[in-house]
Amino acid sequence: MESTIRFEGDVAVISLTGRLDSGAAPLFDLWFAGQDKPECRSYLLEMSALTYITSAGLRSILKICKVLEARGGRLAACAMTGPVRDLFKIAGFNQFVALYEGLDEGLAALSA
Questions:
Q1: The sheet that has 2-8: what strands, in order across it?
Q2: Which residues contact 67 (CB under 8 A, 6 or more apart)?
Q3: Burial (CB count within 10 angstroms: exposed 0-12, middle 13-18, buried 19+), residue 72
Q4: Which pTM does this prediction carry?
Q5: pLDDT tens for residues 62-79?
Q6: 19 CB contacts (<8 Å, ≥6 apart)?
Q7: Cα–Cα distances in angstroms (integers) from residue 98 to residues 1, 22, 26, 34, 102, in the given order
Q8: Between the CA atoms of 55, 26, 74 and 46, what dihedral angle is there, to the nearest 10 degrees?
Q9: Contact call for residues 78 and 99 (beta carbons, < 8 A)
């Protein structure tokens, strides 16, 4: 899995590529811990190139939610492929992670 981060105004956009599974999740957790800025309260996961996610990957996303919750921030996701979106919904993650069809829509919502 590959992850990159860029800042669009006050929103940190994390682009995920490949598979977020039990092998990649611990590496992603470490990567995020090194990239996280305590002053950043809005993160957007851009997932158009994420082809697969497991419960370990969902756990990593839940960790980000907890970090942001502690600082009054929020996490959203956008541009998910069908299987990834389906798993998010089955696991109930759409109850606490806002899902947007595209990057522009996600950025607009988090910037408001």
A1: 2-8, 11-20, 42-53, 74-78, 98-100
A2: 36, 73
A3: exposed
A4: 0.95
A5: 999 999 999 999 999 999
A6: 1, 50, 51, 52, 53
A7: 23, 24, 24, 24, 12
A8: -80
A9: yes
